Amino acid sequence: MRIAVIVLIGTVLAMLTTASVRAAAGEQAFSANKCGECHVTQGPAQEKTIADQLAKKGPELWYAGSKFQQPWLEQWLQDPKPIRPLKYNSLSEENPGDHPKLAAGDAASITEYLMSLTSADVEVGVIKPKKNPKGRLIFVKKMPCSGCHQFPGKKFKGGRSAPSLHGAGKRLNPDWIYAYLKKTRVFKPIRMMPIFDGILRDKDMKSVAAYVASFK
Ligand code: HEC
Ligand code: HEC
């Protein structure tokens, strides 16, 4: 009897601590840690001019829940290794690698909060990571992807002007990669990266997204 009551209380408590409750705590921790000074969490994208983009101190996070994989995010917030070889919004300065670090507790709750920020423009379950020759051909030969992005290549390691795609298979949601290629303007109204929709066929965007999603 006593055990049953304890189990019942435990279950109720567990239900109260649902993801949404943890996300609310994470939202508070996000603001207490001043993350909002550099990151926008309100969508849709607000930047309209190059000046708007240059005024941003960090990448937008309003679709973080669609873009990232949860385990990667929680880990990265505790040990933030540079993603962009160069400083954000710069083409000459190195990335100083000075991103704020979080303790495990804040990292977990903030991750829960960020994972709740999703975009309806990302269709779920479309892309399966796959090291496919078609995607590779597009990435390294047919299209200039590797001219801007570092990637796990054998001889040529890729360019440095864009976020590195090393570890993209652990960091990025495969469906987001495809959505990003397909609907670039939704996520980046102002951007350095070319729009490939109309240049690549839908099939090819899927192949290259699956290829990038296989990067270790
Ligand atoms: C002083 C500005 C600044 C502050 C404060 C800041 N960030 Fe960042 N954040 C950046 C920059 C710049 C990058 C890009 C880092 C890189 O590419 O290596 C970044 C990257 C990120 C990323 C990866 C985004 C992407 O698209 O690659 C996440 C997630 C993130 N920050 C979360 C946070 C959280 C959570 C906090 C609060 C603890 C925080 N940031 C505080 C500037 C900031
Ligand atoms: C002219 C340089 C350039 C080329 C070419 C280019 N990209 Fe990008 N890419 C960027 C930049 C810069 C970003 C960061 C977002 C931004 O501000 O545009 C980016 C962002 C990305 C991201 C998101 C990475 C992240 O962590 O936020 C992916 C995935 C990506 N590109 C894949 C590709 C693929 C696939 C191709 C080829 C079909 C490609 N890119 C071609 C410059 C480029």
Q: Decide which structural class fits the backbone.
A: mainly alpha
Instruction: Tell how many strands the DSSP assignment holds.
Output: 0
CATH architecture annotation of the largest domain: Orthogonal Bundle
Q: What fold name goes in the CATH topology slot of the largest domain?
A: Cytochrome Bc1 Complex, Chain D, domain 2
- In terms of per-residue confidence, which ranges show pLDDT below 50 for 5 or more consecutive residues? none
- N-to-C series of helices and strands: HHHHHHHHHHHH
Describe the model.
The mean pLDDT is 95. Helix 10 packs antiparallel against helix 12. The longest helix is centred in the N-terminal third of the chain and has 15 residues. The protein contains 12 helices and no strands. The chain folds into 2 domains: 114 residues, Cytochrome Bc1 Complex, Chain D, domain 2 (Orthogonal Bundle), CATH 1.10.760; 80 residues, Orthogonal Bundle (Cytochrome Bc1 Complex, Chain D, domain 2), CATH 1.10.760. By secondary structure, it is an all-alpha fold. It binds heme C (HEC) (2 copies). The site of one heme C (HEC) has 23 residues, from helix 5. The site of one heme C has 23 residues, from helix 5.
